[in-house]
Design goal:
- The structure is a single chain.
- The chain is built from seven helices and eleven strands.
- By secondary structure, the protein is an alpha/beta fold.
- It has a single domain, classed as Rossmann fold.
- The strands form two sheets. It has a nine-stranded mixed beta sheet, sandwiched between helices.
- Strand 4, helix 2 and strand 5 form a beta-alpha-beta unit.
- The longest helix is centred in the N-terminal third of the chain and has 17 residues.
- The N and C termini lie far apart (53 Å).
């Protein structure tokens, strides 16, 4: 079984995001493998250990994104593919999906695993677009994944529990951050990652036309500060007061 995991290098979540003069996210600070993608790599490795096969990491970004790929390789992934091209600077979600789809299609995977959304963008738009471009069924918000022959079944997280959904492979899965605890890379894994292949390609290698697909941030607005709530002390009439407040808010 061949599993492709999309990975991305993002600013360290432990540091506050800062903006450049053009309102884009500053990427000059510490950068790491997206924590959600790290969970996706772990899930892929567990599936590989159970069923055999190969785990391939695919990323789009500047050349230093190899560091994020190398992190996944040190965990146990087999090889990586980096799409890096100056023309991709400022790529919007659709162009990102088109580029990733072209690279993934060449791999002919049985499963594609993506994190539900990236830490820095948080749009959640790329995985559904990717599934559509690849013509694959998509199983989203997976908190558990089971592969049985040519089918894959996931527990799909919902607001009040989970759904059990199933599809035939090849398929695309988006995983939630809590699906698996990422393993620590061993010294042996770190050393082995240095010799694992990371193939670097550009737009010309994929035959993808950039077109006009780019986005700019026009403005950034701070979230409004939340107002302090009312404190109701229980003097024997608290329940009546709470019911009155809920009725005034038309909750009851």
């Amino acid at each position: 079984m061949k599993i492709v995991v999309t990975v991305k290098q993002v600013p360290d979540p432990n540091l506050n995001l800062t903006l450049e003069a053009d309102n884009s996210i500053s990427r000059e600070k510490e950068v790491v493998l997206d924590p959600g993608d790290e969970c996706g790599v772990e899930e892929a490795l567990q599936l590989k250990e159970a069923h055999g096969g190969e785990v391939v990491l695919v990323s789009m970004g500047p050349e230093r994104s190899k560091d994020a790929i190398r992190k996944g390789l040190s965990m146990g992934a087999d090889r990586g593919v980096l799409i890096s091209d100056p023309q991709l600077a400022g790529a919007d979600a659709l162009l990102t999906a088109r580029v990733l789809a072209a690279a993934i299609k060449a791999e002919e995977p049985d499963l594609v695993i993506c994190s539900t959304e990236s830490y820095d963008g948080s749009t959640g738009m790329v995985p559904p677009m990717l599934a559509e471009l690849l013509g694959l069924p998509q199983l989203t918000f997976a908190k558990k994944v089971e592969v049985n022959g040519s089918s894959v079944k996931v527990n799909r997280q919902t607001s009040d529990g989970y759904q059990v959904v199933e599809a035939s492979t090849p398929a695309l899965i988006t995983v939630t951050a809590g699906i698996a605890e990422p393993r620590y890379a061993s010294l042996k894994g770190i050393m082995a990652a240095r010799s694992k292949e990371i193939k670097q390609i550009g737009l010309g290698d994929l035959g993808v036309d950039k077109g006009q697909a780019a986005e700019t941030i026009e403005g950034v607005v701070d979230a409004e500060a939340r107002k302090a709530g009312a404190v109701i002390e229980d003097d024997g009439t608290a329940v009546d007061r709470i019911v009155q407040v809920l009725a005034e808010a038309k909750v009851l």
